[in-house]
Design brief:
Elements lengths: L3 E5 L2 H11 L3 E5 L7 H5 L8 E4 L5 H14 L4 E5 L6 H7 L4 E3 L5 H17 L14 E4 L2 E4 L3 E2 L2 E2 L2 H8 L19 E6 L7 H15 L4 E6 L6 H5 L7 H4 L7 H6 L2 E3 L3 E4 L13 H12 L4 E6 L5 H8 L3 E7 L2 H17 L5 E9 L7 H8 L5 E4 L2 H9 L11 H13 L7 H12 L2
Parallel strand pairs: 1-2, 1-3, 3-4, 4-5, 10-14, 10-15, 11-13, 11-14, 15-16, 16-17
Antiparallel strand pairs: 6-7, 8-9, 12-13
Length: 441
């Protein structure tokens, strides 16, 4: 018998309970609720004695599960896993529950609740004490199941040891470093008037450089709702995207964390929509709220925007502290940037902390940096020379500043990073060691 049942949409909470209960836990993911509570019940093995519902289940889903469990498994103990909120009293009044448990409750508190409820179920005759014992370990060979009861070397076989051997590796759960008191968080938007200016490359390397001074406290948001390609540039395979990050279910902190993808260089990524048509599901206001929420958890938030000044980009500019404007060494690009500046001044959105980057500079382009400044009507802060190393690093899915620290383009990009975080000096020995590690992967 498997005494505990969890119905939840939170992979992080599932991982926690598996670590606590091991083989005594049966899990049905909340996605099956799309087909109704009966579809969930059809996937339940045996007769659960204690069922945990949540986190990230709404009232209607929980109500349906409570009724279905009571009908199929009379006497089952029911625990709702949910944060304390204003409407919690309504849940308690309208649902026949035995307990409410916060998903952030400590392991000790969680186990203590399980012990109290299981003892009560036994005392009231709704369960037997042996129902909560560890199930016998089994070996599975194709379509047959063989129970292990043999002894080895005169010592009795411990099913708990076998369970530890066959247990799936735990899901890696990242904890965000606490923000230091008195240090303001910063959000940086990377903006370009047209596509193909190197905006995404700069955003990726900016996040990488900032992560050197604030490990795991940097998040890179791909807010290009048309053709965001940060995932491709970093060689990531995210399970969640910005669609999930701004969804109603992401109000739950555990679910929100699962929408982030961790990169090995010490920063997180919110991936863009998988296709342009899905971008309509992410409103400009939702992007603004996402940036504000991320600033509450991360030291630096870097936002790669859709080219031009669409609604998503304009709202992004209202929620950031710095803007990095990127243009290439072409007259159309420079004139488009000048037009952007004029529009932003008209709208009152010209940022105070402005960094103008001229990308892919080339002495053979026919114009100089001074010519570019005259066209856009503003001073260039950083010019990044054209370099084949940029394309090579991108094709390998490695940030340039960690791929070739001596490359002139990498040095120029590093200076952009240092405009945001002056302490982000290159640590050459560490970077070169990381580069060699990447080469062996």
């Amino acid at each position: 018998m498997i005494p505990f049942l969890l119905v939840s949409r939170s992979a992080e909470y599932e991982s926690r309970l598996r670590a606590l209960l091991g083989a005594r836990l049966d899990v049905v993911t909340g996605e099956f609720l799309t087909f109704g509570a009966d579809a969930v019940m059809d996937r339940v093995e045996g007769t659960p004695r204690i069922a945990l519902l949540g986190p990230v289940l709404n009232y209607e889903e929980t109500h349906g599960l409570v009724n279905a469990l009571a009908a199929r498994h009379p006497g089952v103990g029911l625990i709702v896993v949910r944060e304390q909120r204003s409407d919690l009293e309504d849940w308690v009044d309208e649902l026949e529950l035995h307990a409410i448990l916060s998903p952030s409750a400590s392991d000790e508190t969680t186990l203590a609740l399980f012990r109290r409820l299981s003892d009560w179920l036994v005392e009231s005759g709704k369960a037997d004490a042996h129902d909560f014992d560890e199930p016998a370990a089994t070996l599975v060979f194709e379509d047959t199941e063989e129970e292990i009861t043999a002894e080895s070397d005169g010592e009795e076989f411990d099913p708990g040891e076998f369970d530890q051997l066959v247990q799936a590796p735990p899901i890696e759960v990242w904890e965000f470093p606490p923000l230091e008191a008195g240090i303001a968080t910063e959000a940086i938007a990377v903006v370009a008037p047209k596509g193909g200016q190197g905006k995404t490359t700069l955003a990726v390397n900016l996040a990488t450089g900032l992560a050197e001074v604030a490990p795991n406290s940097v998040v890179l948001v791909d807010a290009d709702m048309q053709f965001g390609d940060i995932v491709a540039a970093l060689g990531l395979e995210p399970e969640q995207t910005i669609v999930e990050a701004v969804a109603e279910a992401a109000a739950d902190e555990i679910v929100f964390k699962t929408s982030l993808t961790h990169h090995k260089d010490g920063f997180f990524v919110v991936a863009s929509v998988p296709s342009p048509e899905l971008g309509d599901a992410v409103t400009p206001d939702a992007v603004g709220r996402l940036i504000d929420r991320l600033r509450g958890a991360f030291r630096y938030v870097v936002v790669d925007t859709t080219p031009g000044l669409g609604e998503h980009t304009l709202v992004t500019l209202e929620h950031v502290t710095d803007v990095v404007f990127v243009a290439s060494m072409s007259v159309p690009s420079l004139r488009a940037m000048r037009t952007e500046f004029e529009l932003l001044r008209t709208l009152g959105l010209m940022p105070g902390n402005r960094h103008i980057v001229l990308n892919q500079t080339d002495k053979l382009s026919g114009i100089t940096v001074r010519d570019a400044e005259h066209i856009i009507g503003a001073q260039i802060d950083v010019d990044i020379p054209r370099s084949s190393a940029v394309l090579l690093a991108s094709n390998r899915g490695v940030p340039l500043i960690h791929d070739d620290v001596r490359d002139p383009a990498a040095k120029a990009i590093r200076s952009v990073v240092m405009r945001i975080a002056p302490e982000a000096h290159p640590k050459r020995r560490k970077i070169q060691r990381r580069r060699r590690s990447n080469d062996t992967e």
